[in-house]
Specification:
ABC transporter involved in vitamin B12 uptake, BtuC; two-stranded antiparallel ribbon
Length: about 375
Amino acid sequence: MQQKTALHVHKPVGTYRYVQIILGVFFSAYLLWRLYVVLIAHPAYGPDTWLRFTIDGVVLGSVYALIAIGYTLVYGILFMINFAHGDVMMLGAFGGYFVFEALGAYKVSSSLSFLNAYPVISVILAFLAGMAVSSTAGYFLEKIAYRPLRGAPRLVPLISAVGASIFLENAAQLLFSTQRWDYTNPAVLNRGAGWNIHVGQGTVVVTYTGVLTIVVSVLIMIGLYLLVKRTRLGRAMRAVAENKSTAALMGVDVDGIISRTFIISGVLAGAAGVMWGIHLGLVYYYVGFIPGIKAFTAAVLGGIGSIPGAMLGGLFLGVVESLGPAVLGISFQLKDVIAFSILVLVLVFRPTGILGEVLSEEKV
């Protein structure tokens, strides 16, 4: 009887795996055919356009990566998805916006504002303000919305996160209205300005704002990785992520570590929000929702709980989102469909993600 039960359990698993392989082969064949069509048979774009798409994808992916790491940090500690994380990013974007507005209004001479007289200091102050606002929001979010539910079933804090997201969006709408606000960058960071690269018959502009976004993202990601791997705080975070009870017995302040994790997560979201405003230009109360969901997709793609996986997943998603419509021959307005289709495909074919690990039952 036990053997019959075992056979009954394993048979659907094998069938499911067989269906996965068939779907994977068909999808790969279709993708190769589309690449042949757009690159060789009927080239729709020149090399300059493909390079432009790739650069735009890397810039966008850098922002997704920062937000995705915030998801990964919180999941690694609490094993929950903080769906309010994109709205924390939105608050950081507004923090940087108001700093730029204040510095632009402050005149150091009759014709020169502080914003344009000291652009480096202005950008640093905007990042500090955005990160401070978002880290404060992350701290109080954990204190009010998540900590009282620490011992509740897993679904309860998830519902609380959705409620917190709706609350932050509506609070921002009341504070800042539904208007779309335009970031006023320093003159040296004018959107669209940059270095011209001649490729084939065309010219590709590598924008200053895009380079700033990539450089700052890489520096922050390297700094975070070193913090988690090489510092005392990082060791404590990894201990809490492994086993809270054992970490507490070893003298680790579990509640304090969780609070600091949310603060660090908020710092990353705030930096991403300021970069979003500087590079793309518009902020409004709902600006964090779609990037937040896409960053969650990037975190799942890279392997939820893996910091290098979140980095890789964010960059990969940004590039695929930028190149995907051109490769598949569909409207660029459908790029969001591509991003969320990737989420479905990852969950079907590789639920652990690119660099994810198979979790034990205790962590699932």
